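Lab notebook page, bench 4
Experiment: in silico fold of construct C2
Operator: M.H.
Input chain length: 136 residues
Purpose: comparison with the prior construct
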Amino acid sequence: MGPTLAQDHDAPHCAAGRDLVAKFVDGCRVEGILPFFYHTTLDWYQPSFQSDVDAYLGYLHKSLDVLCTHYGEIGGLWFDGNGSKPDADWKQDRLYGLIRRLQPRGHGKIWCRRDVPDDESALGHWRRRLQLPITG
């Protein structure tokens, strides 16, 4: 969606030809909203995802470095995808430490998909957690 230091599979290098994350962030700023990013932890196009979790985590951290340093203050990150490798050591303390170091003001909330209880729908859970109106 935006430029990356980690690969050429990004919006500026494809048909979009521009940084879509920057457009999103700019729109948020106009409305006085801190942007909040969804980020999957899996990447089927990255060869190390299949073969070397530690190398993949280096790649993932580079990607997060871009999100946390190129767009100013953010509201947080919601991660999803760790279930694709349930036995892997995702080294979440290191990941969260990186985010907190790069976003030191402390606004950044960090959620993983595992934070949603199994007995509730994700949408219902987040509507209650974020106090969003329930619409049909």
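Observations: Strands lie at 36-40, 76-80, 109-112. Residues 32-114 form one domain.
Next step: discuss at group meeting.
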